[in-house]
Write a structure and sequence with these properties.
7-stranded antiparallel beta sheet; alpha+beta; disordered C terminus; two-stranded antiparallel sheet; disordered N terminus; 216 residues; single chain
Amino acid sequence: MTTDPRPLTLPAVGMEPTRDLRASVRDLLDVMLDKGVYLDLDLIITVADVPLIGVSLRAAVAGVETMLEHGLMKDWDEQTRAAAARSITRGLALADDEEIVLRMAGGHLQEEPYQSWRPGIVCLTSHRLVVWRSEPREVLWQARLEDVAAVDLRAEASVGGPDRTRVHVVTRDGQARLSAAAPQRLHDALQARIAERQTARHGGAASPGGRDDAGR
């Protein structure tokens, strides 16, 4: 019985042997990461003409993106992404079909029983916008994306420093003011998610202002 000694191979495109005396280590790394390199090596190490060690190496070396593009390391990639998702959402319960879209440091302005900023983590998911903290574990504020009517950025004066940009969110139940490490990024991502959900719900393009043609 014979076996194929080359189970992992990358397409031969761009992998023909070349000789360039001007090539540097950086050039080699560029080729390895972009196109990939296949190693087919049989090596015998001898001492005083006595063979001691045999090495038979068949390996494909390339950048991770190149490997994934050609169907290699998919299991590793899926496991790594799943582990990263569990890490960033540890302490925040997610629905089975809910995914994290954006995560950053931030906070929520509590109005009752007194007004105060409560620091935490701002998470935009495929279903909702939520501000939570891990110690003690608590959801400080949240709203489903379908309940968000509008979102904008507002400058807020600070004592002895520059103005701070806050994310102002209007929902069916009222209004909320959030702080975020990157307020513009959160605003844009939230706007995009709202537009996507409106388009999917109405089966067409969302109208300006987040309302459908009936003005709802």
